[in-house]
Design goal:
about 140 residues, 1 helix, five-stranded mixed beta sheet, about 45% strand, Immunoglobulin-like, about 15% helix, alpha+beta, elongated
């Protein structure tokens, strides 16, 4: 009797388990990014793909504070060697650092005081030279939440 109850419970849980697996199977491009966002900004969700270049959209209010987001791709299963700013912003300052035991990268951008308009910068994650081009829209005030 106890065995029949356990098997019955497994059959009840199986559709839920399969539904979650199906969602993972469709996400073969990597983890949805960014993992976290902090500051007077918004960063549009994107897929961090291995061995390619990714376009990222950021909207930031020019308050003097940094817009910071973290990246993590558990599908890569590797430690990062470097997070490099390979193309500096023309109207602000971009930085990239490794955090969490080299499993995550943290990207920050601070616009020049008083600037409003478009900007961009490039980041490269090593190994494998995974590149990101971040298109920034700087607003004179914080973007709406």
């Amino acid at each position: 009797m106890a065995m029949a109850v356990r098997i019955g419970r497994l059959f009840l849980l199986f559709p839920l388990w399969c539904a979650s697996c199906a969602g993972l199977a469709r996400n073969d491009q990597g983890a949805l990014q960014p993992q976290t966002v902090a500051g007077p900004c918004q960063v549009k969700k994107f897929f961090l793909l291995s061995l390619t270049s990714v376009d990222v959209e950021m909207t930031v209010g020019n308050t003097g504070q940094a817009c910071t987001f973290t990246l993590l791709n558990p599908a890569l299963q590797i430690a990062l060697n470097a997070a490099l700013v390979t193309g500096q912003a023309a109207h602000g300052r971009a930085t990239a650092d490794l955090i969490s035991g080299r499993r995550q990268a943290e990207i920050s951008y601070v616009p020049q005081p008083g600037y409003a308009g478009p900007d961009s910068f490039s980041i490269t994650l090593q190994p494998n030279a995974v590149g990101m081009t971040v298109a920034v829209t700087v607003q004179p005030t914080p973007p709406p939440s």
